[in-house]
Design brief:
429 residues, alpha+beta, Alpha-Beta Plaits, Chitinase A, domain 3, four-stranded antiparallel β-sheet, 13 helices, 20% strand
Amino acid sequence: MKTNVKYTTDTKVELTITLGAKELEAAEQVALKKLSRDLKVPGFRKGHVPLAVAQKNIDPNALQEQTLENALSKAVAESFLGEKLQALERPAVEVKKFVPAQELEFTAEAEVVPPVKLGDYKKLKSKREEAKVTAADVDEIIQRMQENFVERKAVKREAKRGDEVIIDFTGKKDDVAFEGGSAKDYALQLGDGQFIPGFEDGIVGHKAGETFSLDLTFPKDYHAKDMAGQKVVFDVTLRTVNELTLPEVNDEFAAKCGPFTDVKELKSDIKREIAAQKEREATEKLKDALVSELTEISKVALPELLIEDQMRSIEQDMMQNLMYRSVTLESYLETQKFTNRDDWLKREVRPAAEKRVKAGLILAELSKVLEIDISRDELAAQIEQMKLQYGAKDAKVAKQLENPDVHRDIANRMITDKTVEKLVELHSK
């Protein structure tokens, strides 16, 4: 077999492959074995017809076709492997010359993983941020804990900012109640900014038992396009005004928060937790910074197939996120100043996809340089952990975790994670 490699683009190759009589004979023998399995010849059991007999009884055209198929399939796989080319798609094959039992010449074209010119990963400038815990950090957590044990006392005075109010309300546009604008026994802390501007301020100064109306206007940039900039009226009934009192931070309070004997012990524990969290955040920031820096100083062509795949993934994730937030794509495009979906794909999605693809190719190359791999036991343990975490909740996910392709994806992610961790290790000494 002879193979000639020609790059038609930075990411696409065309292999010209020539097979001789020897390779074609081997392909024919494989074809004979395959076709003879279903051959019926008097005096022989199905599947046990000798090849010499089978050859006389098999349609020559069918044999030639199967021989060609076998020869092409085997030669394409061996050629790409021999040339150390990783195809990103099924190669497009075109037969140029075929003389049965003598010669076969064809081309195989496909996008491949391109060569990577790796930057000096040992001399990156990014450094870990120092994880400092301040008294303000501790006080912030303490305040949150106080809010968990807040004391509520119904009062007859006028409501003020900081109070909790229980209200019934109905929102109307042009005297018609609009969707999502009504509720009963709704608990609202005045000053939290949960509602549109003017709503909470309009409740301030009223007492429990009062019913009143608020003439308001939705913000022009409101996420629901049909309500943006619209004038509305809210009919409000104030049921209860609760004065909120935070508990005193003392030893008794510390005991309520956990197995602590005093405030000092509580604050020490909070400080340790914050420090651990900031260390984790500093590590993640360093990972991102190192990968970004290495990506900048490395060079690699980006296959369009990988970019398109990442674009679909990013778009899918965005649609799910918007659905979770009850925001339409059209509303998002408008608030972010995109003219349409194509403009969004061009200016936001594609650059993000290109960045992901480049980083992925560079980290894959770095993993080879650093000789990073995972064992079968490591992969099995990870899959088992994922089954326990997700499979128990979702039968579909559990089934997917049995798929060999999914196993390969998991393995690749694990290798990538190990590679980034090694990069961090090299720059943490």
